[in-house]
Amino acid sequence: MRRVDMVIVGAGVVGLAVAAELSASLAGKAIVVMERHNKFGQETSSRNSEVIHAGMYYSAGSFKARLCVEGNRRLYRFCEAWGIPHERLGKLIIARTAEEVPVLESILNQGLANGVNDLELLEAGQVRQLEPHVAAVAAVFSPSTGIIDSHALMSRLEYLARHRGAMFAYRHEVTMVEQSGTGYRVTYRGPGGQSDRIYCDWLINCAGLGADKIPAWLGMDVEQAGYRIYPCKGEYFGVSNAKSGLVRRLVYPPPLPELKGLGIHATKALDGRLRFGPSTFYVQDFDYSVDEGHAREFYQAIKSYLPFIDFADLQPDIAGIRPKIQGPGNSVRDFVVRHEVEHGLAGLINLIGIESPGLTSSLSLAGLVVDMIEKG
Ligand SMILES: Cc1cc2nc3c(=O)[nH]c(=O)nc-3n(C[C@H](O)[C@H](O)[C@H](O)COP(=O)(O)OP(=O)(O)OC[C@H]3O[C@@H](n4cnc5c(N)ncnc54)[C@H](O)[C@@H]3O)c2cc1C
């Protein structure tokens, strides 16, 4: 029987950031990260747009707004300190028609309310100067939106956590969690398929798409708590290198109603490649293939603002799955970051529904977890 101070379930960017922060702030504590895959970042954290968001979409005071705005600044500082490849490219949220301009104004005001003070409203001519190949009647320009090499970020976080004493148990799938005294008994399936247990005082649930299982095992009613995860897929299509150079920044249409997604937008990779996505549709399983038949829908979405794209340019790229707690047709939900004392589960910290902007918010989410543990 092994006993440790803390078990973190999940080695995506959030679990890694939590491990790195906790091992720095609470030196000497025994911390184990349990991850079912054979290395970090095999799920949502390596299947996203790699955008460092600025934080203008989310309602003021929400975790998404606060942690994104703070996370953006922390992430740039972290990248500079540790040499993580990134680029402060800037982003345009465009209006394709005059009817969409009020949406831009509300995004600008929301940004100001959230502390994003560098947004500018641009007229058509100013947009053309920045992006001559983008068709827009106006745009919000966000200079502090950027892109990051998420693999390099995760690799550095893992290195820091290990260096500070955290242990990583890859190919360890948590299969059950029960209360045991004042802590938790965590049952897992190890690399050889054998089952074993570990005991901990603190259990930090960073399990992404699997995050609703842990509270369910502990007897919580996940429906009532609003913790049920509704996987929501997003596909990307890429274009040839020749056309990639025609757009220099990130270009987004106005977001979808109830922030179901940010709309099929143009993202740039650090190597200059241009991709479109992600689309937004709920799924039942975790299939990461891209349906070529969806190319038409992408073409319809982007041709209105990127007229130089031909249908034949679109090539299937990657797909990711959002761990949404906002079910189909429901209104927007905030991140859940909660020490579950009120549910009689002291020592359990749930991070659930960590969809976008979770990559941007990873360091600030980790800071919040440390605060919760320090408060006890
Ligand atoms: C299409 C798409 C685009 C996005 N774009 C952006 C963006 O541009 N900017 C941004 O800020 N955010 C973006 N996001 C959101 C961001 O990717 C996520 O918020 C972030 O990656 C979540 O990280 P995580 O560590 O919580 O989850 P994950 O990366 O999913 O990690 C969870 C880990 O837990 C492990 N796990 C689960 N259950 C168990 C178990 N029982 N036992 C052991 N291990 C387990 C999994 O294997 C996994 O490795 C996007 C998301 C998607 C889907």
Q: What's the level 1 CATH class of the largest domain?
A: Alpha Beta
> Major sheet: size, sense and barrel closure?
8 strands, mixed
Rg is 21 Å
Full CATH superfamily name of the largest domain: FAD/NAD(P)-binding domain
Mean pLDDT score, rounded?
96
**Second-tier CATH architecture of the largest domain:** 3-Layer(bba) Sandwich
Shape: elongated
* Derived structural class: alpha+beta
The total count of strands amounts to 20
Strand content: 25-35%
Quickly count the domains.
3
CATH topology of the largest domain: FAD/NAD(P)-binding domain
The molecules bound to the chains, other than polymers, are:
flavin-adenine dinucleotide
> How large is the count of helical segments?
10
Q: Indicate the percent of residues in helices.
A: 25-40%
Low-confidence parts, pLDDT < 50 over ≥5 residues?
none
What is the helix/strand order?
Answer: EHEEHEEHEHEEHEEEEHHEHEEEEHEEEH
N- to C-terminal separation? Answer: 25 Å
